[in-house]
Every structure is written in structure tokens, then in C-alpha cells.
Write a structure and sequence with these properties.
heterodimer, A: Rossmann fold, 2 domains, 6-stranded mixed β-sheet, 10 helices, B: ABC transporter involved in vitamin B12 uptake, BtuC, 14 helices
């Protein structure tokens, strides 16, 4: 068993504020992991870090021999311009980028695989439809078809079943199961805990810091879930520097301030 | 027959300046069509206008240094345009500032710098040529420049077409599969500048944007896919060039505005009767189909 992804004291965030703090651990190659946590727990942030859109504030992600094109990513709020005049077929065909690049042609084999992917998500007959005419569920099916073609070793899905009906999410989860069967590594952010218990062998419970990570049954306990909810406090604009950074002073911590330092003395005075 | 000939063909067979004007305007339409379509699809329709303002000071400085010299004015315009385009792209990609805001800041700065330089020199130069161009007075050099720019535009567009389209539809996806999106976008901005510089020789900086945006808007009313939209835009730009020159010839009106007005007429027709979202079709949609 080799690790597909290894997190080493990983801290990710925005504007120096960590959204995921000190995450350690490994995602085994071929694992099917649910990432669970309240809103604001850092699930999307972690995924952005994994695909490399967001650079770590500290620590690192080791991706082994994976290059960025081996990681496919379905963001929660895709930045798709739905008014753009492009049809389902061309949109799905983008999934072949790794093979075609900017100039590569789409040959007969490629066309066959595009049609197969469209059929696999149940969109046969929609090839020529403009993307502006698709419903939310059809859109998600189309994006899954594109993921199929990307043929990636690691697949990261950010709340893929939000706002789609039961039939669509069941159909799409069949594809996730198929990827799992093909020994691909799949990470999926989820909210439906019953669904996670029934379908995901492994779960990471995240609340800006990892609460628990392991077998789903041992992670999704009432105590862990309560802890997670408590830990997800608001994004504090005046947050102190993290002690782990070996910071010499924290703006609020009078105890570190030394006498004779005017700036710090003023800081302490205003607090009093 | 001879009357039709006199109206539609003779002006070009009899007068060399009309042939030159037609060649220049057609070359311009060839490059400007696809550029305009992408500007429109990226919701950057007014970017062309702003870029035209950014180019103006560069061209003016070129004019100031060496008079009405094709090379100096072109180089000045290109430099000013590239600098603004590249800075805009960089700022939009690396900071929270969106592209429109970044462009607004830099084109205004460019304009201010240009005006400052001119006022320092204290020359009251005639910018009419730059403002309104003169498609009827294209010399060999200018014609070659316009043709070369159109060629470059089509070749570069062919090279960056796929990443540019993906970058337009789904920039998030593009970022995860390749780093070609950024360069493709920058190359596209450079092409916008190149075409505006072509345009200002023929139509002037103010109307150069017209031969980009009006055909693009026409295309949007007739096509649902990008390729057809580009073809329609380019064709309507070419038709407007030809018809505009004829109108200008027979009625003695200024040629640049005549070309844009014909394009405007085509646009109004498309707006009313266009197959995709035209007003008449919206008012009388016909009975709906079976589910």
C-alpha cells in the first residue's frame, strides 16, 4: 500500500488566516475517502491545496510521482460561464486535454471514448445541446463525463451531490464506485452522514483541524461530531499568530511582551 | 447590367484608392471578427474601447517624435497597448482586482502619461488622423501592415484557440489541467492591441473598436456555437466594409463612419430578426414543442 498523497503539518488558508491547520496523514493509493465537517471546516480549502490551486501557508503536500494532470478536480462552485456558446460534446471532450493538449486532434478512438463517457452519465442525445440549456443535474452529469475522460489517478470531488436529485446522485455515485474499483484514489466532500456511513470505507472529519481520520465507523461518532462543531468557530480577523510558528510575540498576548518595547507596551495598555 | 456594374463594381475597378481601401478594410475585418467575438464572449466588449484609449498616447508620442510616420506611430501605439494589456493581465491574475478595474486604472494612467508628454512638449499636434483614420488614403506600407497584422492574428488565434476557449468557458478547469490558460489570455490581449493598431490607421482609434464589436454582436444573434459565430462576424465585417465604401463613394460621406454605420444597420436587423434571441422571435415565439 503506497500513499497517493501525504500531508505533512499542512496549513492552508487565505490572507495568512489558516482554514486548515496542521494536517498530518496520508491518503493511501486507491482509497475512497469522505471528507466531512461543518460549513467552514476547510474541506474546499483542503481540496484546493491538493490540486495545487492554493499554496500552503506552512507544511507541505507530497504528491509522490503524481503530476498535476493525474489529479482531477470537481470544484463545488465551478467557474463555468454557462452562457458560453459551447455544446455538451465539446465540453466533455475537454477531459481529453492530457492526451490532446492545445493541438492534438480528436481521432476516432477519442471520439468513441467521448461518446462512451457521455453514455456512462446518461446524457446520450444531449451531445449537441448548448450548456446554457442544461439543468443543474444534467450539468453535474456532464462534468462527471469530463472527469471520466480525464482518466486521473486521484479524483477530488467537492460536494458533488449537492443540489442534485436522488436518481442523479445515485447514478453519479456508481461512477465513484467504479473509480474505486479501478484502484483510483477518490476524495469526496460530503454532508450526508448516513450516506457516508453506508458507502465510504474511510472518513476524514475536519473542523479546520483534523478531528479524526480513519475507518468511517470509528470517525463518525457523536463525540467526534460534537467536537467538530465546537471547533469551527468564526474566522477571527484579529487572530493571534499560531504558537507553532515560533512567533516571538502574539499581538494579544501580553505575557510575551517585554518591558521597554514601546509598541508592545502600547498594545498591552489598550487592552487594559 | 451596366448600371449594376457602375454601382457595385466600377468604383473599385476605376479607382485605385478604392481598391486599396477595400483590401485594407477586408483585411481588417478578417482579423477583427474573431477578436471581437472573443471579446464579447469574455464580457470584455468595452475592453476594446479602453484599449483604444490606451493606444492613443503611444501613437501620439510617436507622432510627436517623428511626425506622421507609420513606423513611429505604430510602434508607439503597440508599446503603449502591450504595456497596458500585460500589466492588466498580471494584476487581474495575481490580485483581487478584477480585469475591468485593473484595465481602467492602467488605461487612464496611459492616457494621462500621454497627455502629459504632449503638454510638456507644448506642441499642438493634429491628432485628427489618429482619431478618425483615413481608409481612402492607405499607402503601401500601411496596407502591408494591416495585412500582416491580420495574418498574425489568424495564425496566433489558431495556435491558442483551444486553451482560449476552455479558459473562457471554465477557467477553473483550465487551471487544473494546464498552465496554458494564462499565456493564451495574454496572447489574446496582445492580438486585441495589434488589431486596434491596424484599425486606427484605417478607421481611427475611436471607430477601430466598431469593426470588432458590431460584427461580433451580429454573430451572437445568428449562431449558437463559437465557430459559426466567428464566421458570421467576419463575413458581416467584410460585407460592411464593402458596402460602407460604396456608400461613402456614391454619397460622398466619410468612409470610416460609413463602414461602421453599415455594420450598425446589419446589427439592428439582426437584433430584430436574429434567429438566436432576436426581438421579433421573442415576441412571436410560435407554439412550443412537445416535451
Amino acid at each position: 500500500m503506497t500513499a497517493a498523497l501525504q500531508f505533512r503539518n499542512l496549513t492552508l488558508g487565505y490572507d495568512r488566516h489558516p482554514a486548515v491547520h496542521h494536517l498530518d496523514g496520508a491518503v493511501e493509493s486507491g482509497a475512497l475517502v469522505a471528507v466531512v465537517g461543518p460549513n467552514g471546516a476547510g474541506k474546499s480549502t483542503l481540496f484546493k491545496g491538493i490540486v495545487g490551486v492554493l499554496k500552503p501557508l506552512a507544511g507541505r503536500i507530497e504528491r509522490g510521482d503524481l503530476n498535476p494532470q493525474n489529479i482531477a478536480y470537481l470544484p463545488q462552485a465551478a467557474e463555468i460561464d454557462r452562457t458560453f456558446p459551447i455544446n455538451v460534446y465539446d465540453m466533455v471532450a475537454m477531459g481529453l486535454w492530457r492526451r490532446t493538449g492545445s493541438f492534438g486532434g480528436i481521432d476516432r478512438a477519442a471520439r468513441a471514448s467521448i461518446e462512451k463517457a457521455i453514455a456512462a452519465v446518461g446524457l446520450t442525445g444531449f451531445e449537441d445541446r448548448g450548456i446554457s440549456t442544461l439543468s443543474g443535474g444534467q450539468m453535474q452529469r456532464m462534468l462527471f463525463a469530463r472527469l471520466l475522460l480525464q482518466d486521473a489517478r486521484v479524483i477530488v470531488l467537492d460536494e458533488p451531490f449537492n443540489a442534485v436529485d436522488a436518481k442523479t446522485s445515485a447514478d453519479l455515485f456508481d461512477l465513484v464506485r467504479r473509480w474505486h474499483g479501478e484502484r483510483r484514489t477518490v476524495l469526496t466532500a460530503m454532508h450526508d452522514l448516513d450516506f457516508v456511513r453506508a458507502n465510504f470505507p474511510e472518513t476524514l472529519l475536519l473542523a479546520r483541524e483534523p478531528v479524526a481520520w480513519g475507518r468511517t465507523a470509528s470517525v463518525l461518532t457523536p463525540e467526534n461530531l460534537l467536537t467538530a462543531r465546537r471547533m469551527c468557530e468564526a474566522f477571527d480577523q484579529a487572530a493571534a499568530l499560531c504558537a507553532d510558528e515560533q512567533a516571538p510575540v502574539s499581538p494579544r498576548g501580553g505575557e510575551v511582551a517585554r518591558a521597554g518595547d514601546p509598541v508592545r507596551e502600547r498594545g498591552v495598555a489598550t487592552q487594559d | 447590367m451596366s448600371m449594376l456594374n457602375a454601382i457595385f463594381i466600377a468604383p473599385f475597378t476605376e479607382f485605385e484608392f478604392m481598391r486599396r481601401a477595400l483590401a485594407g478594410a477586408l483585411a481588417l475585418a478578417l482579423g477583427a471578427g474573431p477578436i471581437g467575438v472573443f471579446l464579447m464572449l469574455r464580457r470584455m466588449s468595452l475592453v476594446g474601447d479602453a484599449m483604444a484609449h490606451a493606444i492613443l498616447p503611444g501613437a501620439a508620442v510617436g507622432f510627436l517624435l517623428s511626425g506622421l510616420n507609420l513606423f513611429a506611430m505604430t510602434a508607439g501605439g503597440l508599446i503603449a497597448g502591450f504595456v497596458v494589456a500585460l500589466l492588466t493581465g498580471l494584476v487581474a491574475r495575481t490580485t483581487e482586482l478584477k480585469e475591468d478595474a485593473a484595465l481602467a486604472t492602467f488605461y487612464l494612467l496611459s492616457l494621462a502619461v500621454g497627455v502629459t508628454i504632449i503638454s510638456l512638449k507644448g506642441t499642438n499636434i493634429d491628432l485628427l488622423h489618429v482619431l478618425f483614420g483615413n481608409v481612402l488614403a492607405l499607402d503601401d506600407q500601411t496596407l502591408l501592415l494591416i495585412a500582416a497584422n491580420a495574418t498574425i492574428t489568424l495564425i496566433v488565434l489558431a495556435v491558442i484557440y483551444r486553451p482560449l476557449v476552455i479558459e473562457c468557458v471554465d477557467p477553473g478547469f483550465m487551471r487544473t489541467v494546464s498552465s496554458a490558460g494564462g499565456p493564451a489570455h495574454l496572447a489574446f490581449l496582445v492580438l486585441v492591441v495589434v488589431n486596434l493598431v491596424s484599425g486606427f490607421h484605417a478607421l481611427g482609434t475611436l471607430l477601430a473598436v466598431g469593426i470588432m464589436m458590431l460584427p461580433a454582436a451580429i454573430g451572437r444573434f445568428w449562431a449558437r456555437d463559437t465557430t459559426l459565430m466567428i464566421l458570421i462576424a467576419t463575413a458581416s465585417g467584410a460585407v460592411a466594409s464593402y458596402a460602407g465604401l460604396l456608400v461613402s463613394f456614391h454619397f460622398g460621406v466619410a468612409s470610416g463612419p460609413a463602414i461602421i454605420l453599415v455594420a450598425g444597420e446589419l446589427y439592428l436587423t439582426s437584433l430584430l430578426f436574429g434567429r438566436v434571441g432576436g426581438l421579433v422571435r421573442q415576441l412571436f415565439p410560435g407554439r412550443h414543442l412537445e416535451a
